Structures are given as structure tokens and as C-alpha cells.
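Exercise 7. Given the encoded structure of a 286-residue chain, write a plausible sequence.
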């Protein structure tokens, strides 16, 4: 049990490391050279760098360290070691990429390409960090702290407020409204990609099957797919007759097999398929 726990912790920190590497590369190569600020403290750091010349890795640490301390005092140990690790190592990798590439490196200058690919990579990085149960500090931490004192405003709304201010600031300091608009594109893409990595990669399919031959279908599912089947008692509103509805949750790669099983036994069966974003229990995630 202890070895399994150590392995799980190691995987988590490896994911956080890989995620911050990807984020750092996106910030240095795509976003910062174009003053595209995809929200968050890293976006604010890009804006500050544009105004004052202070490197984004230093600003990232300077803002996140007080936030982290305030978070520990306000929220307890919830954000813990993984947040501290993610915050620190992101700045380390930003500085590493700046040093490796040197002052004359060629960055992507096309604003559309920079916002698209920068947002994509930041989303992948954040998604991996969140997947491991960590954060890189920033507006999610600030939102959680403020929510403690203003519970009537949700954390996502507070985060969105911070991010919109940062996005607007990017256009102001760059004196181009296009910069704000491209920053919104990068922010939107990064949020969607992060959500996909955290939730949608685990999605499964739930089948509701109404048939006159439920037991035959259920037996074939148990035999050929090795998936559990639940029988739900129901009644047809029009006919008034009792029905047995089969409920079965399967992986994406088993969808076609299940459809074929149902069709081969009862081609007139009524089948409803819905997406399930997370399944916990035997045969799926613990």
C-alpha cells in the first residue's frame, strides 16, 4: 500500500513538472513576445513586463508567494505542497527557457498563431497540473481567498473578473485593442483545453436500453463486454405495461460492440446514449 502511494505521488509531481514545462514554453515563445495575457498571474506578469521590464518569472514568484502565504492562513493546508511546487517550478522553467533561447531568439510574431498555439499549450499545461491535484497559484487562489470573505460571489466568477481585468490591461499597455481580443482567444482556448484534460478524457457512455428481450441483451453484455448491467423497473405511459430498462456504462471503445449486441438481439430496441464525464467504481476510476 505504501509503495502504491509513493508511486501515485511521484506520478502527480511528474505531471505537474511536465505541465509547467509546457506552460513555460508557451509563455516565453508565443505569449510574452506579443503581450498576449491569457489571464492569471502569468498574464499579469506579461503586462508588468511590458510596462516595467521586470522578467515574468520574477513577477510570477513575487505575486504568488504572498498569495500562497495568505492562502495558507485563510484556507488552511488545502493548497499545500503541490501548489508551492507548481508555483516555484513554473518560474524556474520560464527562466530556463529565457536563458536557453537567449536574448535574440526568434518568437512567433503572428498574433493569431501566437494566441491559438499559446492558448493550446497553456491549456494542456494547466490541465496536467490540475489533473495531478496541483495549481500554479494565481487567480484561482486569489478567487478562493476572496470567496472566503465574499461567499455570495462564486470562485469562477471572481476568477473571470480577475482575468478580464488582466486581458483588458494587456491591450491598454500595448496600445492595441487587438491585443486584448487575441488575449481573450488565448484565455478561452486554454480554459477549454484544461477542462477537456481534467474531465473529458475520462468520459464514458451510459446506455439506457428498452427492449422486449432485456435478459438476453443483459446476458450478452455481461458475457462479451464484461460490464455490469442494472435493471430499472419502469412503466410505459401509453401502453401501461411494465418494462425493464437496462442501464449500462461502458468505455468509449466499447460503444460500437454494445450497439451491435443490442441490434443483433432486438433490432427494434429503443436505445438512449448519454455522455458521462466521470465514472467512479469497479471497472472504472477508484
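Solution.
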Amino acid at each position: 500500500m505504501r509503495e502504491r502511494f509513493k508511486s501515485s505521488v511521484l506520478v502527480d509531481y511528474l505531471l505537474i513538472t511536465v505541465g509547467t514545462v509546457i506552460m513555460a514554453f508557451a509563455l516565453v515563445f508565443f505569449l510574452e513576445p506579443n503581450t498576449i495575457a491569457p489571464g492569471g498571474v502569468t498574464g499579469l506578469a506579461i503586462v508588468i513586463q511590458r510596462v516595467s521590464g521586470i522578467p515574468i518569472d520574477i513577477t510570477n514568484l513575487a505575486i504568488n508567494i504572498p498569495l500562497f502565504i495568505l492562502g495558507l492562513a485563510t484556507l488552511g493546508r488545502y493548497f499545500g505542497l503541490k501548489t508551492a511546487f507548481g508555483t516555484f517550478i513554473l518560474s524556474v522553467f520560464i527562466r530556463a527557457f529565457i536563458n536557453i533561447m537567449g536574448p535574440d531568439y526568434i518568437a512567433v510574431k503572428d498574433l493569431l498563431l501566437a494566441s491559438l498555439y499559446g492558448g493550446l499549450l497553456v491549456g494542456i499545461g494547466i490541465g496536467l497540473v490540475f489533473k495531478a491535484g496541483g495549481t500554479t497559484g494565481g487567480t484561482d487562489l486569489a478567487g478562493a481567498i476572496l470567496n472566503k470573505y465574499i461567499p455570495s460571489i462564486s470562485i469562477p466568477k471572481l476568477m473571470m473578473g480577475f482575468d478580464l481585468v488582466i486581458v483588458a490591461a494587456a491591450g491598454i499597455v500595448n496600445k492595441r485593442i487587438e491585443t486584448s481580443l487575441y488575449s481573450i482567444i488565448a484565455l478561452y482556448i486554454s480554459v477549454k483545453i484544461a477542462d477537456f484534460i481534467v474531465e473529458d478524457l475520462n468520459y464514458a457512455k451510459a446506455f439506457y436500453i428498452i427492449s422486449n428481450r432485456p435478459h438476453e441483451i443483459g446476458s450478452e453484455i455481461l458475457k462479451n463486454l464484461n460490464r455490469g448491467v442494472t435493471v430499472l423497473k419502469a412503466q410505459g405511459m401509453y401502453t401501461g405495461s411494465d418494462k425493464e430498462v437496462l442501464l449500462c456504462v461502458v468505455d468509449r471503445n466499447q460503444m460500437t460492440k454494445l450497439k451491435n449486441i443490442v441490434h443483433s438481439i432486438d433490432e427494434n430496441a429503443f436505445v438512449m446514449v448519454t455522455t458521462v464525464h466521470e465514472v467512479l467504481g469497479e471497472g472504472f476510476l477508484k
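Remark. The beta strands are 204-210, 230-235, 242-250, 270-276. Students should compare their own answers with the one above.
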